[in-house]
Amino acid sequence: MKVKLSNGRFPEDGSVVVTLPIETEEYDQVIRQLDRLGVGSACLRDCGFEALLEGPDVMNRLTGGEVNIEELDYLAKRLNSFTASELATYSALALKYDLTDMTDLINLCDCFQNALIVTDFSDMSRIGRSYTLTQNGGAMAVDELEKLNLVAVARNLLSGNAGTVTPYGVLYDEGFSLEHIYDGGMIPSFYYRQGLMDVQVITGKDPDNCPEFTLPMPNQQILRHLERLGYQEGDSYSIVVLGSELPSDLAEVLKTQAEDVFSLNDTVSAVAALDTSEYEKLAAVMRYTSAGTLSRIRQVAEKLDMFEYIPGAQDPDDVGREIILNSGHFEVDPNLEEYIDYESYGLDRLRFGEGEFNPFGYVGYTGDDRLFFEQEHQQQMGGMS
Question: Which CATH number fits the domain 274-385, given the four candidates 1.10.10.1190, 3.50.30.30, 2.60.40.10, 2.120.10.30?
Answer without folding.
Answer: 1.10.10.1190
